[in-house]
Amino acid sequence: SAPNTQAQNGGAERSGGVIMGKARTMRIAANLPHNLWKDIVEAACYLRNRTPLERNRWQSPFERVFKKQPIISHLKAYGCKAFAMTADAQLKLQRKQKLEPRAHIGYLVGYQSSNIYKIWVPHKNKVILTRDVIFNESAFFE
């Protein structure tokens, strides 16, 4: 489309608006900082692709592309507290240091796949990918 003529690409503009609205709501509800916007928007897309739409005869975009229902059993409350196992604990390097922490305390900010989660660890100020995580879906970032 030509510059500054969003009307020529209305469907894509509308989808982008829906995703940004969903991301904004998710960020505010989870009380997450603005600097995580990229991960929040990616999570909003991930969730939208697995959400049934009336215009698709109640099929999700994922289902229309792959001809099978998406797995959603791994979805957790967005922004909930997560205890992600440390790399040392995963490699069992802490056997001699029994009082060292075995998990990072973080918050769910996205999904890499059905068994890999994106966890934001505030004290490291970084997002880590892990599958070894326990969630507390009733606690959120404050």
Description of the molecule:
There is one protein chain. The chain has a 5-stranded antiparallel sheet with strand order 4-3-2-1-5. It contains 4 helices and 5 strands. Strand 2 (103-111) and strand 3 (117-121) form a beta hairpin. It is elongated and about 65 Å long. By secondary structure, it is an alpha+beta fold. The chain has helices at 10-30, 37-48, 61-66, 87-90, and strands at 80-85, 103-111, 117-121, 126-130, 133-140. Helix 1 packs across helix 2 (37-48). The model has no long low-confidence stretch (mean pLDDT 88). 17% of the residues are buried. The protein has one domain (6-140). The chain starts with 9 loop residues before the first helix and ends with a strand. Residues 80-141 form the Retroviral polymerase SH3-like domain. InterPro entries: Retrotran_Ty1/copia-like (IPR039537), RNaseH-like_sf (IPR012337), RNaseH_sf (IPR036397), SH3_retrovirus (IPR057670). Pfam families: SH3_retrovirus. Keywords: DNA integration, DNA recombination, DNA-directed DNA polymerase, Endonuclease, Hydrolase, Magnesium, Metal-binding, Nuclease, Nucleotidyltransferase, RNA-directed DNA polymerase, Transferase. GO terms for molecular function: DNA-directed DNA polymerase activity; endonuclease activity; hydrolase activity; metal ion binding; nucleic acid binding; RNA-directed DNA polymerase activity.
